[in-house]
Design goal:
Blueprint lengths: L1 H7 L1 H23 L13 H13 L3 E9 L2 E8 L5 E10 L2 E5 L5 E2 L4 E6 L10 E12 L6 E4 L4 E4 L2
Antiparallel strand pairs: 1-2, 2-6, 3-4, 3-5, 3-7, 7-8, 7-9
């Protein structure tokens, strides 16, 4: 009975299977090129993607949500991801034996608060090129004088604008 059904409707089954294969190929290709949300963006290398994931999701108490460099100026958005208020004493950015340290103008962060911080006098960045820095934060709780250091296990990597 099944064999006779397949013989009778072979062309319809073949067309349906072909359509499914084409849809799977199109969606797979579109997702891989970043056309659909959740797809890969081939404009960034794996090191850049790993850096973004690390600095956004894996570090505490301060995450770097966004960052960009133009010329020798680096801007990034920092967020306190802890439930307690924190104060940044210094941010050190290092590369090839050089370090620039800054103290934010407004160093106190409430829980979940975000601030944009600018660091100047870094290694000049050519548009389309890549920058890579070691970043660490020296900080303390608002109600504590004990200083702690958050040392990034991964470098901060991005494309120059």
């Amino acid at each position: 009975m099944i064999v006779s059904y397949i013989h009778k409707h072979y062309s319809k089954i073949w067309i349906a299977v072909s359509i499914v294969v084409i849809i799977v190929l199109v969606l797979g290709t579109s997702t891989g090129t970043g056309y659909f949300p959740g797809g890969c963006d081939y404009g960034y290398d794996p090191k850049t993607i790993q850096s973004q994931i690390y600095w956004r999701e894996e570090v505490k108490p301060f995450a770097i949500l966004e960052h960009t460099q133009s010329g020798s100026n680096l801007k990034f958005v920092v967020q306190n991801v802890e439930a307690d208020s924190m104060s940044i004493d210094t941010i050190n950015v290092s590369w090839q034996g050089s370090t620039v340290g800054v103290t934010p103008l407004s160093p106190d962060f409430s829980p979940s608060e975000k601030k944009t911080i600018s660091i100047t006098n870094l290694s000049p960045c050519v548009p389309g090129g890549t920058y890579e820095y070691r970043v660490n934060f020296t900080y303390s709780g608002i109600n504590s004088s004990e200083q702690k250091t958050e040392v990034g296990a991964k470098t901060l990597v991005g494309k120059c604008s």
